[in-house]
């Protein structure tokens, strides 16, 4: 019995065996070329920093962000030292960033004259008070900066005993060893006031990021920055907010600075600010802060929540 070439199916009686011009091979070659073109397009697009993590508003409907002032601070921040709920309220607040843009500004007196002053992580005032002031009403601290803050109590705890600390971090980390460390420091400094962000509020922060950017934080491999937490907390606590030292979202792309500026004013040999912002915004591997995307969100909030920016001034 004759057999088809390359197969195991018998050819019917009286049927002629013919070889076709192999149209399947031609289609496979065409698909291969198309696939190669698509891959080249993806690679080209990935080189464009503005498209790697595109900021996208939710399309197809007009929307406003949730009213952050109705979140309720009492349920969102759990007391670590004592049992008092967070009930502070300020009419006018200033956020002092950690940016080197503050160096040489001589803003210290203005900042100290504000009703409430908010600082972040382990940004010191000693040695920099002429530019950043000394007053600290609130200090928002990430779990990754907790050790650096608490191991220097004379700078961050005892120097300004009126400071209210708000620590944030993944609930699995904050509820174990880090929470015990905060409690031990509180025992040594009875006047210290500290809170941790509740698990439910942490989820709200993630949901807010997704709603404002159109990106799921975990799926997009993003970490929320301390600046994100600080801005939202300030909106909750303050009627008006002035931010010192935060660059606008277009600063590093359209108007590169004429000179290198360290990311932190207290780390002159640290990484460059714009280099850090651009690297984090473009990166696809590993988890990164999306600083530029967050600043676009802040710009959209400015009119809603009475937020102004200076040094540099946002237009």
From TrEMBL:
- Which molecular-function annotation in GO is an example for this chain? alpha-N-acetylgalactosaminide alpha-2,6-sialyltransferase activity
Q: Which UniProt keywords apply?
A: Disulfide bond, Glycoprotein, Glycosyltransferase, Golgi apparatus, Lipid metabolism, Membrane, Sialic acid, Signal-anchor, Transferase, Transmembrane, Transmembrane helix
Q: What is the lineage of its organism?
A: Eukaryota, Metazoa, Chordata, Craniata, Vertebrata
Q: Name one GO biological process term.
A: oligosaccharide metabolic process
List the Gene3D superfamilies hit by this protein, alphabetically: Glycosyl transferase family 29 (3.90.1480.20)
Which is a Pfam family this sequence falls into? Glyco_transf_29
Enumerate the transmembrane spans.
28-47
| Catalytic activities | a ganglioside GD1a (d18:1(4E)) + CMP-N-acetyl-beta-neuraminate = a ganglioside GT1aalpha (d18:1(4E)) + CMP + H(+); a ganglioside GT1b (d18:1(4E)) + CMP-N-acetyl-beta-neuraminate = a ganglioside GQ1balpha (d18:1(4E)) + CMP + H(+); a globoside MSGG + CMP-N-acetyl-beta-neuraminate = a globoside DSGG + CMP + H(+); 3-O-[alpha-Neu5Ac-(2->3)-beta-D-Gal-(1->3)-alpha-D-GalNAc]-L-Thr-[protein] + CMP-N-acetyl-beta-neuraminate = a 3-O-{alpha-Neu5Ac-(2->3)-beta-D-Gal-(1->3)-[alpha-Neu5Ac-(2->6)]-alpha-D-GalNAc}-L-threonyl-[protein] + CMP + H(+)
Topology relative to the membrane: Single-pass type II membrane protein
- Quote the subcellular location field of this record: Golgi apparatus membrane
* Family of this protein: Belongs to the glycosyltransferase 29 family.
The name this protein carries in UniProt is Alpha-N-acetylgalactosaminide alpha-2,6-sialyltransferase 6
Tell me where it mainly resides: Golgi
Q: Which GO terms describe its cellular component?
A: Golgi membrane
